[in-house]
Amino acid sequence: MLAEIKGLNEECGIFGIWGHEEAATLTYYGLHSLQHRGQEGAGIVVGGNGTLQFHKGLGLVTEVFSRGELEKLTGMAAIGHVRYSTAGGGGYANVQPLLFRSQGGSLALAHNGNLVNADELRFRLEQQGSIFQTTSDTEVLAHLIKRSGEPILKERIKEALTHLRGAFAFLILTETEMYIALDPHGFRPLSLGRLGEAYVVASETCAFDVIGATYEREVEPGELIMINKQGIRSERFAPRVSRSICSMEYIYFARPDSNVDGINIHTARKNLGKQLAFEAPVEADVVTGVPDSSISVAIGYAEATGIPYELGLIKNRYVGRTFIQPSQALREQGVKMKLSPVRGVVAGKRVVMVDDSIVRGTTSKRIVRMLREAGATEVHVRISSPPITHPCFYGIDTSTKAELIAANHTIEEIRQLIEADSLAFLSQEGLLQAIGRSNDSKNCGQCLACFTGQYPTKIGGEHVGACVQTSWSEY
């Protein structure tokens, strides 16, 4: 959980499998393991037997597939999707995979990420006669594929992908083939695995573990993988550029039991905590983490400082996704429904509260107050990321600078606003050192745009280059 319970949300998780008679069921389990990446909607498209069948709906995976829908989805290939809306908003129509039928055959799309030039492409396509059925930027790719003049589908897909800018991990399923594509910068994680003779692909490796699949390798940035009855082939649709995998995957989004680009998330977060302890030590009696993503960080901080780690905050796992909040008083109650301080742990103690980020600051303030109400004598806040000072355009729902507290206040001002006794953020250098990605580039192959304002792609433009400094006037 983030310092802001509703502060940052990643767009989605994708899962695909080719060559297994239980494709739909395995996709269901894969999506269930990726549920943390999106709770708004879920869907599965199954193929491989000459036709594409699908079911999707709003809600959690277990809610969408609760009435025997899986038994009706027969085939040896499937792609699935769990969604949290950023680009295009919510609603049933935008729940993925998106399925398109035409005289030339059917095609299903599942997408993780966000296209920074989607509006521009959409305008051009509509000028040329395209009619869109959704407000999702994912649909842009389907129209580009359809309008391509290349003679075969593989080449149409490759041409269409070259028009896209931003973050995208795509799964494409037809009646006879599956395609896997990752954007040239590799903003989002995407892994390839095997389950017997079947091929599996997922946003995170934790999805492999739940179905007993074996990890093989990462999908390379700019790579297009094709799988059919003849086997698997790999080609490039874009030249290699410096990788810019999202730093928030390591800080918050990915599950602790996943490996992202060869690095275990739990280990990375423990290292973040140890580095944070080195940079911002404090005299205290107990260390606690805000569940769930900050637990690993808090353990690392405690190990490095020698201060005991305790469960000072408990997450209520039975709070529904939607909470009716008809008044300000009940909205204030929302945090208490999701988090509870353990009075016996924090009462009379100097507490180090470790969290992964501060977005707007409102929830951090409420958690600090809860700890004080439970008897904490001091509350020292430690954040395992640098201050978020710029919006993300690659699939995280922070779209304006005005909503980011660190973009408009100093660290001391933030400390006062959240009512903490002290506050410290991890440095950018400490972040890169702790995660430990081996890369010759100055950013270690990670996107740091939300901390620095240096975007790997030009926002809203056609040019893609190494970290492009973008001024606010351009937005």
What is the makeup of the main sheet?
Answer: 7 strands, antiparallel
Q: Order of strands across the biggest sheet?
A: 3-2-4-1-10-9-11
Oligomeric description of these chains: single chain
Spans of at least 5 consecutive residues with low confidence: 1-7, 321-328, 461-475
Which class of secondary structure composition applies to the elements?
Answer: alpha+beta
The proportion of residues in beta strands is 25-35%
Radius of gyration over all CA atoms, rounded: 22 Å
Rounded to the nearest angstrom, the distance between the terminal CA atoms is 30 Å
Number of strands: 25
Helix fraction?
25-40%
Mean pLDDT: 88
How many separate helices?
17
The backbone outline, from C-alpha atoms, is globular
Task: Explain the overall architecture.
The chain has 475 residues and is an alpha+beta fold. It is 29% helix and 27% strand. It contains 17 helices and 25 strands. The strands form seven sheets. It has a seven-stranded antiparallel beta sheet. A six-stranded antiparallel beta sheet has the order 5-6-7-8-12-13, with helices on one face. Strands 17-20-21-22 form a four-stranded parallel beta sheet, with helices on both faces. Helix 9 packs across helix 10 (295-305) and helix 9 (265-279) packs antiparallel against helix 16 (428-435). The longest helix is centred in the middle third of the chain and has 15 residues, at 265-279. Residues 1-7, 321-328 and 461-475 have low confidence and may be disordered.
